């Protein structure tokens, strides 16, 4: 009797943490579609860069759109949609990280545009379309749209320092698409520069404001803007500077309320960047574990096993955190503004920037460690070396995103201060999940003590506080949802003084079942 073939390397059967997260979100039925999508991505031609004329990059971007990664979470009403969207981004980020930006930026922009009834009536069908349309044409002749998002728009809401105003906007009256302005100046750090339109922040008499700026004007003529690629930009994503000379733009929200208007987009971006970092962690683990098994008998390699187990714990903890965030986003999205569950509000506003900061930095460390498999000289001319280099270069781009690490940490502090009732509910929920585990309870006690300090002292401890907050949340989630061996290994190695300031693999694994943990990470 013949046996069934083993699952393909891209199968969710090889990723127990993802499979279990989908089951917890009650969307296990989506597994087959996600499996098929992962297989498509794995078989697709790899793009060497994110340039506009790269057919492989366009094909990957189109695959993501067809999978629903642009509008699925924000325009459908099916239960579990955010979890399915998150799983799709996580898979896309593993196999096609270079083409993740247009999917993520369009989703984030959609969170703002759907709140503008007149503009949404015209753009909504084009943004929801699952078919790609890469043609550079006026919007009236397009079947689908791609959106970009200016870096200054994201930085305008970050509590670190004032962002220099490089764009000025002058009102000219009502246009076909809304309140029309003329924008002049520059917008540097523009991701997905070949998009059909961008959301930009510009100065008006009332202050920083949010604008929809299309590549083509409403009359079908080219808008007065020029995209200048920045070829020296770090990382695989395409980045450019946008130069505007009395370019037509349309006000979103109210004048002077740009940071408030952009907040919906930035919130989606926070979750997306975290998922992208989760994807890099996972793929770095898969590459390392596959390479190690091909060269070594891991039963005789205790030191190598400790590094691999450390990677596996980091990857699983990051994913369980991101998938819990996706559930919070959905519950907040489904609730009226005045009836959002306090616990989910805290997850969305406090834990999302904390997760982007911490998971992004862990991805940088793990992908750097994974580069050792490229050999002493880097060996970047080999397929293995090129794969590892793509992960290594993508990690800081996703971890930093459009902001800075310190700004993310200060945003967490501000959210904890503004959302005191929700933060209290968050801590109470974690204490309940801890179930009497003394190590988790000690961390919660330490966090409460740090938050009781004056604001000026909290700022100096912001990175330490955010690290402890994320590690405690991950420990709670794993304690509740993961196998005991995983939860205990994470809690033992991450909480307390032994979990701070260490290098990857610097842990005591004598009481751990390494083979069991590695088999869970990637069956073979």
Describe the protein's architecture and organization.
- By secondary structure, the protein is α+β, with helices and mostly antiparallel strands.
- The chain contains 19 helices and 7 strands.
- It has helices at residues 16-24, 31-43, 55-66, 72-75, 81-95, 100-113, 117-128, 151-155, 258-295, 302-334, 342-370, 383-400, 405-418, 420-434, 438-451, 455-460, 462-481, 484-494, 514-521, and strands at residues 147-149, 167-175, 178-191, 197-204, 207-214, 225-229, 239-252.
- Strands 1, 2, 3, 4, 5, 6 and 7 form a 7-stranded mixed β-sheet that branches.
- β4 and β5 (207-214) form a beta hairpin.
Quick synopsis:
The protein has 19 helices and seven strands. It is α+β, with helices and mostly antiparallel strands. Strands 1, 2, 3, 4, 5, 6 and 7 form a seven-stranded mixed β-sheet that branches.
The helix tally amounts to: 19
What is the helix content?
Answer: 55-70%
- First-to-last CA distance: 22 Å
Q: How much strand content do the residues show? A: 5-15%
Number of strands: 7
Order of helices and strands: HHHHHHHEHEEEEEEHHHHHHHHHHH
Any idea what the radius of gyration is? 23 Å
- What is the approximate shape? globular
Break the fold down into its secondary structure elements and pairings:
Elements: H1 16-24, H2 31-43, H3 55-66, H4 72-75, H5 81-95, H6 100-113, H7 117-128, E1 147-149, H8 151-155, E2 167-175, E3 178-191, E4 197-204, E5 207-214, E6 225-229, E7 239-252, H9 258-295, H10 302-334, H11 342-370, H12 383-400, H13 405-418, H14 420-434, H15 438-451, H16 455-460, H17 462-481, H18 484-494, H19 514-521
Parallel strand pairs: 1-4
Antiparallel strand pairs: 2-3, 3-7, 4-5, 5-7, 6-7
